[in-house]
Amino acid sequence: MTTASVNERIQLIVSGKTNEETCSPALAKGPWEFDRGPAAYGPGSSMSDLIPTGSPIQGALPAEYKTASEAELHERIIAAKKTLGDKVVILGHFYQREEVVQHADYLGDSFQLANAAKAHPEAEAIVFCGVHFMAETADILSSENQAVILPNLAAGCSMADMADIDSVTEAWEQLEEIYGTEPDENGRMPIIPVTYMNSSAALKGFCGERGGIVCTSSNAKTVLAWAFERGQRVLFFPDQHLGRNTAKAMGISTDLMPLWRGRQPLGGNTAEALLEAKVVLWNGFCSVHKRFNVGQIEKARIDFPGVRVIVHPECPMEVVDAADENGSTDYILKAVAAATEPTTFAIGTEVNMVQRLAAQYPQHKIFCLDPVICPCSTMYRIHPGYLAWVLERLVAGEVVNQIKVDGHVAETAKVALERMLAAKPA
């Protein structure tokens, strides 16, 4: 029987009981081992990414949660949830470890969880088992009397950190010098900002203030169409790959998608190239999806003739082009669930989700394109120990690790997020 737990596979690797590989044996340790010292993304796919100065650091986790067995933490979480009842709702992202998502009231992608955050006004607390930008979004969309809690404050996102408010504002000012600020004869603005959900609240607010919008991987095409109705071109950040793959699928030539490199004059481009552009892409990426390559797809096709290859649109363009299909995490899940005959699936997305699908659908052979087990560094920072801790503090009447977006940023970010929620894919 296939286990749904990536942690179990990693523990077998480090104990020498399997020939599988992991990108870092440190993944077998409790995440609290990496809460000490300077901020870092931690072991996993983002371990080599540069983290910005001043990034959040998680405080010390009480020893009882570090030493408790998996079974004990499981029972404590169940007991705390029972005590809290409707006062708490737990949201879990598809990329969370199995030991966490089994306690989630809602499991989904960022678009689905954003909707779920709005749907429970009766809950006093929303515990978001995901990463920082997701918890920010939940706080913006939930009501004032609700507390949004991130079990581990160190659960950030290296992609989100690749675009900051200062560098994006600087880029915008340079683009306005080239394009101007007046609409054309059809009322379309020179450029519309579109930020991926994987970005800070400040950047969502930036878009809200400037007639822009937020997108997710599930509605990116719908959002770009929305933006082109209102603008002549788009500045898309922070993920270049989602922007490129989506625009290309809409028939836009890659020649009209210059890459903007932050902190360089005109992003390293000529004014002529920017004037011809349809989509200006920020030079950001997801470290999980950057691991996938065409060679892995070719090997899968040799090893498993007739394999169905599905990848996430955060993968590089050449990987998306080589796959049979690409789509959001929800698309991938629905594709597997809809397969009526035993099928071999090679999937290019985060390994926790792939492993869970393999366990849920044993009639299929399902495996991750990347043979090396390398989960998202920051999603993996959420551990049952932290979940048990924040829930038991709620039982005791104390809110810890609250994520709060205040004032003007929250107001303007909500504008862009509400536009996103209204842009439902066909």
Q: How much strand content do the residues show?
A: 5-15%
Flag low-confidence runs. Answer: none
Name the CATH architecture of the largest domain: 3-Layer(aba) Sandwich
Figure out the total of helices.
18
Q: Percent range for helical residues?
A: 40-55%
Give the CATH level 1 class of the largest domain.
Answer: Alpha Beta
Counting helices, strands and paired strands, the structural category is alpha/beta
Mean pLDDT: 96
The rounded distance between the terminal residues' Cα atoms is 37 Å
Stated plainly, the CATH topology of the largest domain is called Rossmann fold
- Widest β-sheet, arrangement of strands: 7-6-8-10-9
Q: Could you describe the largest sheet, including whether it forms a barrel?
A: 5 strands, parallel
Oligomer kind:
single chain
Q: Which outline best applies? A: globular
| Number of separate strands | 15
How many domains is the backbone divided into?
3
CATH level-four homologous superfamily name of the largest domain: NadA-like
**Cα-based radius of gyration, to the nearest Å:** 21 Å
What would you say about this model in short?
The protein has 426 residues and is of the alpha/beta class.
What does this structure look like?
- With 426 residues, this protein is of the alpha/beta class.
- It folds into three domains: 48-156 and 379-395, Rossmann fold (3-Layer(aba) Sandwich); 161-287 and 409-422, NadA-like (Rossmann fold, 3-Layer(aba) Sandwich), CATH 3.40.50.10800; 289-373, Rossmann fold.
- Helix content is 40%, strand content 13%.
- The protein has 18 helices and 15 strands.
- The chain has helices at residues 6-14, 63-67, 70-84, 98-101, 110-118, 132-141, 158-161, 165-179, 201-209, 220-230, 240-249, 271-276, 294-303, 317-322, 329-338, 351-360, 384-395, 407-422, and strands at 21-22, 88-93, 106-108, 125-129, 147-149, 192-196, 213-215, 234-237, 259-260, 279-282, 308-311, 325-326, 344-348, 365-368, 372-373.
- The strands form four sheets. Strands 7-6-8-10-9 form a five-stranded parallel β-sheet, with helices on both faces. It has a four-stranded parallel β-sheet with strand order 3-2-4-5, with helices on both faces. It has a four-stranded parallel β-sheet with strand order 12-11-13-14.
- α14 links the parallel β11 (308-311) and β12 (325-326).
- α9 crosses α18.
- 51% of the residues are buried.
- The model has no long low-confidence stretch (mean pLDDT 96).
